[in-house]
Design a protein that fits this description.
CATH topology of the largest domain: DHBP synthase
Number of strands: 31
Number of helices: 23
Number of domains: 4
Strand order of the largest sheet: 7-14-8-9-13-10-12-11-15-16
Strand content: 15-25%
Shape: globular
């Protein structure tokens, strides 16, 4: 008997495998089950708080073949961080099984990543539109390769009882699919069908006093969606509940309906996102490149900003007034796909919220929050744990740029690289980075990896700050974490900074300067340790000496930074008010550059400031006395100033509106001279003049000459587009010249681009072209936003890598 047993052991072997990363909620267990069965192996796989645990026994070649195949071809949505193989000693198994998930009270889940919500896969789409299939037109169809994940996960490991699908008991047919290793729905946690899954309810008259307790779910779901399409075709505005919250839907071709939505939502100019019935439709109204097509049809299914064709038939001009781009997405849930089938054309699908509030996620809140905007609502009874708005992206020169990282992207995992793992004490701490004031999200570390949350929003708003707290609490619960240290913005008045100070356990929070955090986010996304040169261009961020920065050149590594250059400063009185009423911003800039006499009624600039003399004198006195007056180097504010003088005269109604107007005007002019590089100035005459001033190693870009040129052209009636294009060229050329000099001075060829100004596609393309011509390596942050949505990732990277984290500048 012993000889026989030894013979078995000699012929076979056992291997234990631990895999960490994004391996739960992506079909990993059924994939491994099928692979092990094909290789004739015994053993098991189970989810654990560490990732997935596998043991296999079989012939030595079969075990090796299994391990090799799993390494080379894991499930397509998985992200493997560590693949550890050990010899546990020989074990006998009667077959291969999926065992119950392993979890321990209070255990750390630092090796498990919650998967983002995944767009409906092609196989499920085919079933939804197959009239012979039992899920025909069912709006909650999914499988192991698609469907909701993050927004339904209450706890880890990822199993149905720990999700909001727990209340839906699978019918015998769904259970059979779930249990069948050969089925695509084998261990698909949100598996459902019309007999056992979530259902819809249609509210044909949504009023502010609507009571969700009166809803009755069920009935003819296809008929309900068809009725929604009828209402939309009739010009009604609807609230449609999706995977991460509500959209507000309206017929994109109906001018009066779109304008009514603008009136009700108090959103006069900001572009609306669109959902199209097909990729072919999008191509008929927009230019779609290969990389853009990949994004549109990817499992992320973001809103992709696309350049409009000259004629965009079927799209109201009110959807994106005065904008060169349209933001399109394809249906990413079964409900959206069925709605598109019945409606047949493009729909506005904008965030279902009041201004500066989180999107609505439950039927209970839509009456109060959307009852004055929407005429009707389509809701479902699958609970959504956290709001998760649509991600927004674009492609420029082959680079993916993320404006908003949320549904489909978040939680986003950034690996800081093996070189810091194990030799850095901070990577073993629980570090929470609380992000920026605007466009907030949070980040925290799981070892050397950074996890970034979904989009939260402006944390000065009460509802968004409550969402910030809820989001942080949710991730603490998911991963059984208590923050050891916080990292926050340098601004002590930010709600997030105050939160970090109040909740710090071991140390005061480390405060990281805003523009340094911008550059750090690009470094994190590209696993850079430095030195790098950061071009951090945005609208507002507190500088380390108390002024407002925003046009910065920073020599950085992960420990520190040095400000080595900037755009020339100017004084602004009532900064926050001036960002909305940009005539005031332009006036302050003109006074700073040319003196107040030039701006008063007798001066050459008086025609731009036809205001009561007493109002202008009040500003002059306040600036002279330094009352409510700050100095700023913000390139975003310089864009606003130039936009005003070029012809943008109204108040700003959303962040970046004036700069977008200027970009659109410049893009139209650029289209008239396609093929010219940034140094060719055949349109509109000579380029505006900038001055590079170097003093004590610090380089300043002077832009008084730019303003002289803008004012001269504006006074001569030059087309605003020409003025805008010449300004873009002046900024890009001076930035590239400055960057080349400062990179040499800093001893690096790596340049990181960050800040909201780089949402400007025209400027981004010009600067990338110019920097590459200088022989520099340009880094952008990919699936991390270059805007304030990337700040928390940069803060967290600093927290992991800087041994002085918590001991440097602190918030008091």
């Amino acid at each position: 008997m012993e000889q026989s047993q030894r013979g078995v052991e000699n012929a076979k072997k056992t291997r234990s495998i631990r895999i960490t990363g994004q391996v739960q909620g992506v079909g990993f267990r059924p994939h491994v089950y099928r692979l092990a069965s094909e290789c004739g192996l015994g053993g098991f796989i189970k989810n654990s708080v560490a990732g997935v645990e596998i043991e296999v026994t079989g012939s030595s070649p079969a075990v090796d073949r299994f391990i090799d195949a799993l390494k080379k071809s894991p499930p397509p949505r998985s992200v493997i961080e560590n693949f550890i193989v050990k010899d546990p000693g020989f074990k006998l198994f009667s077959g291969f099984s999926i065992d119950h998930s392993e979890g321990a009270e209070g255990a750390s889940s630092k090796s498990v990543f919650v998967s983002p919500d995944i767009a409906t896969c092609p196989d499920c789409m085919r079933e939804i539109f197959d009239a012979t299939d039992r899920r025909y037109l069912y709006p909650f169809t999914n499988c192991t390769n698609c469907g909701p994940r993050f927004t339904i996960t209450r706890e880890l490991p990822y199993d149905r009882p720990k999700t909001t699908m727990a209340e839906f008991k699978m019918c015998p047919k769904c259970q059979a699919e779930y249990d069948d290793p050969a089925d695509r729905r084998f261990h698909a946690q949100p598996n459902a069908c019309p007999d056992c899954g979530p259902a819809l309810a249609l509210i044909e008259s949504l009023l502010p006093d609507f009571e969700a307790s009166t809803l009755k779910y069920g009935g003819d779901y296809a008929g309900q969606i068809a009725r929604v399409a009828e209402l939309l075709k009739g010009g009604k505005i609807g609230a449609v509940m999706g995977v991460g919250g509500f959209h507000i839907a309206v017929d994109a071709a109906n001018d009066s309906a779109v304008n009514l939505l603008r009136e009700r939502k108090i959103r006069p100019y900001k572009p609306f996102a669109l959902m199209a019935p097909s990729l072919d439709y999008i191509k008929s109204v927009c230019h779609v490149g290969g990389e853009e097509e990949k994004l549109l049809t990817s499992h992320i299914a973001p809103v992709v900003l696309l350049k409009k064709r000259k004629t965009a038939a079927g799209i109201s001009d009110a959807v994106a007034p005065g904008n060169a781009y349209l933001g399109f997405m394809l249906p990413y849930t079964p409900l959206h796909a069925v709605l598109m089938k019945f409606f047949g054309g493009p729909l506005v699908m904008t965030s279902g919220n009041l201004s500066d509030e989180p999107i609505c996620v439950s039927p209970a809140e839509i009456g109060e929050k959307l009852g004055t905007i929407c005429d009707f609502a389509l809701v479902h009874n699958r609970p959504i744990l956290l709001p998760c708005d649509d991600s927004v992206m674009f492609v420029e020169r082959g680079r993916e740029i993320t404006i908003r990282a949320s549904r489909g992207l978040s939680p986003n995992i950034i690996s800081s690289g093996e070189k810091i793992d194990g030799n850095n004490a901070r990577a073993r701490d629980n570090i929470f980075a609380v992000g920026a004031i605007l466009k907030n999200n949070i980040s925290f570390n799981l070892g050397q990896r950074i996890v970034t949350s979904q989009f939260v929003g402006d944390t000065d708003a009460v509802g968004n700050f409550e969402l910030f707290e809820k989001t942080l609490g949710h991730f603490k619960k998911l991963y059984c974490l208590e923050p050891d240290r916080f990292v926050c913005d340098l601004n002590p008045d930010a709600n997030t900074s105050r939160y970090a100070l109040e909740h710090s356990r071991l140390e005061k929070p480390a405060a990281v300067q805003h523009h340094y955090a911008h550059t750090l986010s690009v470094m994190a996304a590209n696993r850079l340790l430095g030195p790098v040169l950061g071009l951090s261009f945005d609208g507002t961020g507190l500088g380390d000496e108390g002024s407002v920065w925003g046009g910065e050149f920073l020599a950085c590594d992960t420990r520190s930074y040095k400000r080595v250059g900037s755009f020339a400063r100017f004084a602004v009185q009532n900064y926050d008010g001036s960002t909305r009423d940009i005539w005031r911003l332009a006036y302050c800039a003109a006074v700073s550059l040319f003196g107040k006499k030039e701006c008063l009624p007798v001066g050459r600039l008086s025609k731009y400031f036809e205001r009561p003399p007493s109002e202008l004198e009040m500003i002059n006195k306040a600036m002279a006395g330094g009352v409510n007056t700050v100095s700023t180097s913000s390139l975003g504010r310089i864009f606003d100033v130039v936009a005003y003088f070029a012809g943008f005269r109204r108040s700003v109604t959303f962040e970046g509106e004036a700069a977008i107007w200027l970009e659109t005007a410049a893009q139209e002019a650029a289209d008239r001279c396609a093929g010219l590089t940034i140094r060719e100035n055949s349109i509109g005459g000579a380029c505006y003049i900038t001055e590079l001033i170097k003093e004590n190693g610090f380089l300043t870009i002077g832009w008084k000459g730019v303003m002289e040129g803008v004012l001269e052209d504006a006074g001569n009636g030059v087309d605003p587009g020409v003025i805008a294009l010449k300004f873009h060229r002046a900024v890009s050329e001076s930035s590239c010249d400055a960057a080349a000099a400062l990179a040499r001075q800093s001893g690096t060829k790596d340049v990181c681009l960050s800040g909201g100004v780089f949402f400007n596609r025209l400027l981004l393309g010009m600067i990338v072209e110019g920097l590459e011509r200088e022989g520099l390596t340009v880094h952008t942050p990919g699936k991390v936003s270059p805007g304030d949505g990337g700040i928390s990732a940069g803060q967290c990277y600093y927290g992991i890598l800087d041994s002085r984290c918590g001991g440097g500048v602190t918030v008091s």
